[in-house]
């Protein structure tokens, strides 16, 4: 049965219905449980809990407040990237603005652009799997940074590969310049003999 929040989407026919069905299949119910546990552990019980399922998860996150509290909780107190209004926004553009602020803060935190969902993915429940992907990337970064701001079980997320800085001495760097890489081939016996350009 259609619900009030689906009024802005007409019925999906044929191709778009198939595409939507595929996207919905990617949504992971078990992952939803883990993400809800993390968000509650990270932000405190004040954020509440969603009704189970894709739409419950969407409604819980839709106004952007829970997401904003989540990203703010990853920073030390005093340096919160997202401003949270005293009362949750009820106007559509304010809610979308709140989501957009979360997305910018997530990118600033280190989530790569390809892992960041679009506002409509969440707001219109177009791709809740993308929302899960963004939250997973955020959690993985928080565990990897290991700066004391992550709360919850570190095993909920995979650590991101850490950059490994290598230090070379000046003489090592000079030595490296004298080596011709094998992919360059060899220049022994090379000449331009027998080459002709253009028409003879």
Automatic annotation (TrEMBL):
InterPro entries: Calponin-like, Calponin_repeat, CH_dom, CH_dom_sf, SM22_calponin
Primary subcellular site in the record, as a coarse category: cytoplasm
Localisation per UniProt entry: Cytoplasm
Gene Ontology cellular component terms for the protein in this record: cytoplasm
Family membership: Belongs to the calponin family.
Database matches in PANTHER family: CALPONIN (PTHR47385), TRANSGELIN (PTHR47385:SF16)
Presence of the UniProt keyword Ion transport in the record: no
Gene3D superfamilies: Calponin-like domain
Keywords, ordered alphabetically: Acetylation, Cytoplasm, Muscle protein
Domain named Calponin-homology (CH): residues: 29-142
Keyword Acetylation: yes
Protein name: Transgelin
